[in-house]
Amino acid sequence: MIDAEIIDLANRMADAAGEILRAAYRQPLAVDRKADSSPVTRADRDVEAALCALIEAQYPDHGIIGEEFGDVRAESPYQWVLDPIDGTRSFIGGYPLFTTLIALVHKDIPILGVIDQPILRERRVGVAGQNSDSGLRRNDIKNATIATTSIDYFTPEQTASFQKLKSQCANTVLGGDAYAYAMLANGQIDIVIDAGLKPYDFCALRPVIEGAGGVITDWEGKAITLASDGRVIAAGSGELHEVALGML
Fold it and tell me: How far apart (Å, rounded) are the C-alpha atoms in residues 71 and 81?
């Protein structure tokens, strides 16, 4: 289902995004506000346009779901799900914690994911059925490091659940958006919990986390798909995921 040509395209897409973002990083930026009040820059739009052009050139029958320009060919069984800058606030603030997220979904199931940080030149690529286990795993929650993008995205009930879980862990990291999931795949972070995510935020995460030997589901323990509700819990091991999920 995933061949070398698709993986090569995904890497070329990440390379193209990186060139644009490195040129715009810590430069004067005009920041607009979208309908949901979230920030967007010209770099967001330039990256997505470049990614879409590469897809159109090689797979003109594939669909595209992009954060900035919407959907193309929604009827296609193959959908590229794109977040040109995940963590635009970090990008605007000059923090090298934003990423470009690229996912390929087949019949709603994420089968390829890329998390790329172009300033640090760190890239995680995950492909369904291929394991690149990082080998760093904790199973005891009392020594775990937990991360979330922001508790502002939680409802009061979700905040209470997160605080309960956080109180059992050794360390807490706030912020980082999808970069936290890359660090989980690297073995630096043990649990990441988020809510309110959109498909372009979470589709790339599943192949990367599972490919590194971790576990990622929604808050009910269901597999992440294009139709997931945006509540995500990822852990570096099945045992740790089970403990954390139980607390939620």
Answer: 9
- What are the tens digits of pLDDT across the range 94-107? 999 999 999 999 99
Q: Which residues contact 57 (CB under 8 A, 6 or more apart)?
A: none
For the residues of 63-93, what is the DSSP string, one character each? Answer: EEEETTTEEE-TT-SEEEEEEEEETHHHHHH
| pTM of the predicted model as reported, rounded to 2 decimal places | 0.95
Q: So what's the architecture of 4-127 in CATH?
A: 2-Layer Sandwich (3.30)
| Range(s) within the chain of domains with CATH label 3.30.540.10 | 4-127
For domain 141-247, say whether CATH 3.40.50.300 is its number: no
Q: Where in the chain is the domain with CATH 3.40.190.80?
A: 141-247
Distance in angstroms (rounded) separating the CA atoms of residues 109 and 121: 27
Gap between the Cα atoms of 22 and 118, Å rounded: 7
pLDDT in tens, 37-82: 899 999 999 999 999 999 999 999 999 999 999 899 999 999 999 9
